Amino acid sequence: MTTDSLRSGPGATGPGATGHGATGHDSRDGRSGGGGRHSARLPVREHLPARDPATATAAADVPVLDVVIPVYNEEKDLRPCVVRLNGHLARTFPYPFRITVADNASTDSTPAVAAALAEELLGVRYVRLEEKGRGRALRTVWSASDAPVLAYMDVDLSTDLNALLPLVAPLISGHSDLAIGSRLARSSRVVRGPKREFISRAYNLILRSSLAAGFSDAQCGFKAIRREVAERLLPMVEDSGWFFDTELLVLAERAGLRIHEVPVDWIDDPDSTVHIVRTATEDLKGVWRVGRALAVGALPLDRLARPFGDDPRDRALTGVPRGLARQLVGFCFVGALSTLFYLALYSLFRLGVGPQIANGGALLVSAVANTAANRRLTFGVRGRGGAVRHQAQGLVVFAIGLALTSGSLAALGAASGAPSHGTELAVLITANLAATVLRFLLLRAWVFPERRTTERDDVEAPLPATAALPVRNESEDVR
User: Which tens digits make up the pLDDT trace of 116-127?
Assistant: First the structure.
């Protein structure tokens, strides 16, 4: 990639500036230069301390929010967008902020318009990149920003700006790691043609079915992320174009990070220059690439883990079993799905082979899926660490289930000679129920044992909570 030229207006804060207060680097948060063994671990989320906007200036203070506007040949829309956004933030946002125009190698007068805005408006910065790509622009600006909360929006301002504060509020409060605007939420109000509506819903359906995505709208140009999350997540994102958003969200969700969704009011821009067919093709290629990487465990998602103690489920509460009730619920849920999956596989295999081979094959496939599901959903193990060992131990548990079910089938065959398919299924269900209690005990005590004190000592202690200072009431300024 070519060297990026950075041009800052008088209100810009240098990307290398050291933050204090809300963003001060702490040796405990893994970003110190010591390179300790916990340097890749995310810090505990904290509420960013508030500052009085009446005494804060964009030039003197590190901004809490950095809003990036990626543009390519937007000489017509850029000035109205930045002026309107700057006015909205100055009127309603109770923290210092910055607006960064990221120019993706525009060939019209966009650079001149952006440079003029940076000179004219305090807190507006202009960044020039010599290569195209929305993802490339966001990666470049977010990686260099010193603001603790990073956001971006499209230059057409299709999303109503009243959703901006609700978007970043859960990141400022420490409640969430990422936030996205959703046009597909039930309470969203969207105006767009049937073609774009169909494409959007079809794309999100593909994400849900192929990558098991839980978020509702991947491509809405209205997102925000905490900086410490971006620092760990951006190096894992390969795409530099339109799929950048989706890849970022999928990896964050798979790592167990919290994604907050905000319903938005959104009006389609009829003059949009997005090439729908080319963008859709690149997105599908990205879905295939990320899905394959997740399937083979090629992504080090464990580096996005939070410290022990950040998750309330980690806390030891008097009179509450250590996760037993939650684990039982998760185990029963996974077990029910695994049993249905196993019975479907057995019925399928039984069409071509005998009962013993069909039973062994169905149990083997379902056991691998069962161990992976229990590892994540029941016992809350994140990342790739120990995955091979867990699967090996899970196969031992599988062998016990195989012995019980195979023995039951053998006994049934000896007793009745040629039992019906329904009788076989009934016996298998009974045998599986008998093995369920033993399977849960083995998984809990042997495969996924509780973390001991020595293991907790190997993890960073949670940072102390920071009390939030009151902010002045801006409700009278909101239009």
Answer: 999 999 999 999
